[in-house]
Amino acid sequence: MTVKATNGIKSKYRVDNAEIIGQGQLIRAACCNLGESFTTNPSVDVSYSDAATGAKQIKLLGLSGTYVQMLTENISNLRGASLPYSLGYVPGPWMQSIQVSKGASSVKNGYESTTGQINIEFLKPQGTDGVRANVYQDSELKTEVNLDGSIHLNDRLSTATLLHFENRQMDHDGNGDGFMDMPKLRQYNLMHRWAYVSPRWISQLMLRGLHDEREGGQSRKHANAASSELLYSTSVKTNRYEMQWKNGFTLNADHNTSIALMLHGSWHDADNMFGTTQYDVTQKNGYAQLMFETDITENHNVSLGASFNHDYYDERFNPLGALPKAESKVTKETTPGLYAQYTYKLGDKLTVMPGVRWDHSNLYGSFLTPRLHIKYSPSNIVTLRTSVGKGYRSPHALAENVTLLASGREIIIDPNLNQEEAWNMGASLGFNIPPDFVTQKTCIL
Q1: I need a labelling partner for 93 at 20 to 30 A (CA). Which of 18, 124, 255, 408 fits?
Q2: 3-state secondary structure of 442
Q3: DSSP character for 414?
Q4: What does the angle CA 236 – CA 86 – CA 182 come to, to the nearest 5 degrees?
Q5: Is 74 left (phi over 0), alpha (psi -120 to 50) or beta?
């Protein structure tokens, strides 16, 4: 059962405090991207972290988006070097739904969630067959073109291709201060998907490529033609490629016993210029997860799994052009992990879900991530949820905060940054007014 909220849907039976934003809400802003889709949703705050580059950031429970775990179809993604502009990398028409979870999340998805997680579900190839398109243009000559189509090759095999083009090349300087209020933007975005669905095996393959250009700074329309001074400008050029492959095998349908293998790889390259400051970063990521899940009885469920994550960062930094050549810094982090999660369900009234995972980083050593979720519904009207858990995050000061370079301030980074860790605990109380109750009261009035 689900309960409709003002801008989304609250699931009554989920143990976590989650809100589901479906296509009914997303279609109201069909030209939007992921960041703009939250503007009408009170659960997530979205603001500009830097007007010069147009970068947006989200806030969940009062903390910035660096502490929110971003997932694409339940696989950790859009992290590290891609984080500053990640909200603009997901076109609105591509999204089937968004799940926003506040507080500690399941240990299945890793150790990084501190304030919550946002999971993005894309349009599936096995969905509607056919071709769809939309075109958008505003008064500032921003143009967006979206095209997607899917083909059902047979009862089990489907494929889909999604295209997105975005272009804004007009100098916008509404207050006449000589600086563009928003950067010029050009983006090409392509996704290709395959899906195979049989009674016992489900396989989904996703390939994606992105090219994004952002140019800002002083507007040439208001520049003094007689001046010999160079205009202050910003330039961000990004190329990103991804591959994601998910496989699920049903071993025993009666007990919901299944095993799943999920693989993800990404290559992210960004060249940034802020005036004379140069910062280029290349991030390569590989992720694998093996999961086993079964219902021991109707009331008891167990999930076991192993994960492996590898991050490679190559950062080249030349502050204010003071160095003859940008200094290169290479960081490699490999983190294997194991997790176990147990779920006890007493009908629809009580759900208790404790979980723990162990991970070992070659940079920070071994660490434990315990988490606990409890949901109690004494009646169909009231639902009480509480959760407590720990989260960790490996810091990458420049890659995750590149927009700070637009200020021209001196950047000082502690050479001995430690892994961040935090506890998160909270409770929520939800009320559901049954439809028949509303009908009865309406008749009485």
Answers
A1: 18
A2: helix
A3: -
A4: 50
A5: left
Residue 445: pLDDT band (50, 70, 90) is: very low
Which of 407, 410, 398, 413 is CA-nearest to residue 50?
A: 407
Global pTM reads 0.91
Please write the tens of the pLDDT for every residue from 100-128: 888 888 999 999 999 999 999 999 999 87
Report the C-alpha dihedral over residues 218, 167, 59, 306, rounded to 10 degrees.
Answer: -130
pLDDT value for 161: 97
- Averaged over 323-345, what is the pLDDT? 95
Asked if 117 contacts 76 with a C-beta cutoff of 8 angstroms, the reply is: no
Q: Compute the residue count for the chain.
A: 445
Do residues 261 and 292 lie in contact, with contact meaning Cβ atoms separated by under 8 Å? no
| Number of neighbouring beta carbons within 10 Å of residue 223 | 12
Distance CA 119, CA 98 (A): 6
pLDDT digits (tens, 9 = 90+) for 5-50: 444 566 677 888 888 888 777 776 556 788 888 776 667 777 766 6
Determine the distance from the C-alpha atom of residue 405 to the mean position of all C-alpha atoms in its chain, rounded to a whole number. Answer: 23
Rounded to whole angstroms, how far apart are CA atoms 445 and 354?
A: 46
Integer Cα distance of 140 and 171 in angstroms: 9
- CA-nearest of 405, 69, 73, 80 to 240 is 80
User: In sequence order, what are the beta bridge partners of 126?
Assistant: none
Residue 284 pLDDT: 98
pLDDT by residue (tens digit) across 171-201?
888 888 888 888 899 999 999 999 999 999 9
> Is the per-residue pLDDT at 72 higher than 80?
yes
CA distance 284 to 268: 6
Query: 3-state DSSP call for residue 438?
Result: helix
Determine which helix (DSSP H) or strand (DSSP E) holds 443, and give its type and residue range. Answer: helix 435-444
Segment 332-345 mean pLDDT: 98
Element (H, E) at 152: strand 143-152
> CA–CA distance from 274 to each of 79, 313, 406 (Å)?
22, 20, 5
- Type of residue found at 426: G
According to the model, what pLDDT value does residue 2 have? 45
Element of type H or E holding 435: helix 435-444
Q: What is the DSSP annotation of 63-129?
A: EEGGGEEEEETTEE-S-GGGSTTGGGSSBGGGEEEEEEEESS--GGG-S--SSEEEEEEEPPTTS--
